């Protein structure tokens, strides 16, 4: 009897010890999980900070001194494009759009900002290859720009085999080789033609992109759009009230996505236009278009004002709360209007 009781107590002691050990392990796992979540949240907040604007003139001057070169026409624009691309890869958190682990996996504002910048990098790389580096349509394409342009058009969300970052780095290196050949003291082995028609071709694509973004931003509160079928004059009683158009609205799940894509777009364009102001200065002065470029820069600088709200507010246009999308749309619309004026001046004789 005594031995059975002793055995029973021994078994109970082991059970209690096992239970206590499992409970301790469970607590450790929960604490580690909470710490992991806390660290990822803090990292996510830090990685969500947008890169600061930079001086394209100071950066280009530093690059010219480092390379022991003179900043010839095209040097600033190419250097700006290089630095913008490097910022995508080297900002806090690096390139986030292809992350498959937290906190990058959870984030959507910064990936949309990155996409806005990336679209402008792609457009300018294509313009350099197709027109700005060629004297006419029958001229040969620059060999390094032939590499750079498709590299930046590689998938933006590939994380391996190959990764997006590695492909974009190849594009950056190709741009650096083009810049090096363009600015050789012995004589340029690459070309850059700062002509009005070359700039106008890029502006034409930009005008449609900004128009689309402005519309998406403006539709954050919904708007009535006239159906194409109503554009044809109705053959009825002219006193009959016309039908109202359908209401078009950006889905609420995409409002912040569109806003941050617009922020990335305007960040990239601000630097590109500052470089264009220098590299195309002669043609801008000749066409009396320098004031239009500076007006565009002013509007784009306004779109980069600090965000004090932790979330993107979507108040009614005349409501109590602010509407950040409509504010951004106003800046982009005014910039787009100035771009239209600039194109008219460049097209004039």
Structure, briefly:
This protein has 349 residues and is mainly alpha-helical. It has 11 helices and 2 strands.
Largest sheet composition: 2 strands, antiparallel
Q: From the alpha-carbon coordinates, what is the Rg to the nearest angstrom?
A: 28 Å
Mean pLDDT: 86
Stretches where pLDDT is under 50 for at least 5 consecutive residues are none
One letter per element, helices H and strands E, the order comes to HHHHHHHEEHHHH
Strands side by side in the biggest sheet: 1-2
First-residue to last-residue Cα separation: 115 Å
Report the strand count: 2
Tell me the count of domains: 2
Specify the number of helices.
Answer: 11
Overall shape: it is globular
The helix content, as a percent range, equals: 55-70%
Instruction: Tell me the quaternary state.
Output: single chain
Structural class: mainly alpha
Residue share in β-strands:
under 5%
Structural write-up:
With 349 residues, the chain is mostly helical. It has two domains: 55-193; 194-223 and 247-349. It contains eleven helices and two strands. A two-stranded antiparallel ribbon has the order 1-2. α3 (75-90) packs antiparallel against α4 (109-132). The longest helix has 46 residues, at 2-47. The mean pLDDT is 86.
């Amino acid at each position: 009897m005594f031995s059975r009781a002793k055995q029973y107590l021994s078994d109970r002691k082991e059970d209690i010890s096992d239970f206590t050990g499992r409970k301790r392990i469970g607590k450790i796992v929960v604490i580690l999980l909470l710490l992991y979540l806390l660290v990822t949240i803090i990292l996510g907040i830090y990685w969500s900070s947008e890169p600061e604007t930079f001086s394209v003139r100071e950066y280009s001057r530093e690059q010219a001194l480092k390379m022991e070169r003179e900043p010839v026409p095209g040097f600033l624009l190419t250097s700006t494009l290089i630095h913008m691309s490097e910022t995508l890869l080297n900002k806090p958190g690096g390139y986030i759009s292809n992350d498959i682990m937290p906190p990058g996996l959870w984030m959507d504002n910064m990936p949309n900002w990155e996409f806005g910048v990336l679209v402008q990098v792609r457009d300018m790389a294509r313009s350099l290859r197709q027109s700005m580096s060629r004297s006419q349509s029958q001229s040969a394409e620059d060999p390094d720009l032939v590499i750079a342009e498709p590299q930046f058009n590689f998938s933006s969300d590939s994380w391996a085999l190959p990764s997006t970052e590695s492909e974009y780095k190849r594009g950056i290196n190709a741009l650096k080789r083009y810049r090096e050949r363009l600015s050789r003291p012995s004589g340029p082995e690459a070309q850059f033609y700062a002509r009005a028609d070359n700039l106008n071709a890029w502006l034409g694509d930009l005008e449609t992109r900004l128009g689309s973004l402005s519309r998406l931003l403006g539709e954050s509160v919904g708007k009535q759009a006239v159906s194409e079928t109503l554009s044809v004059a109705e053959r009825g009683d002219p006193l009959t009230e016309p039908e109202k158009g359908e209401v078009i609205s950006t889905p609420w799940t995409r409002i912040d996505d569109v806003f941050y894509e617009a922020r990335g777009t305007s960040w990239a364009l601000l630097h590109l236009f500052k470089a264009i102001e220098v590299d195309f200065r002669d043609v801008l002065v000749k066409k009396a278009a320098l004031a239009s470029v500076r007006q565009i820069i002013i509007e784009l600088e306004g779109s980069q004002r600090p965000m004090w709200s932790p979330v993107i507010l979507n108040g009614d246009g005349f409501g109590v709360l602010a509407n950040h999308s409509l504010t951004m749309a106003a800046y982009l619309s005014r910039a787009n209007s100035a771009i239209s004026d600039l194109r008219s001046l460049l097209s004039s004789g």
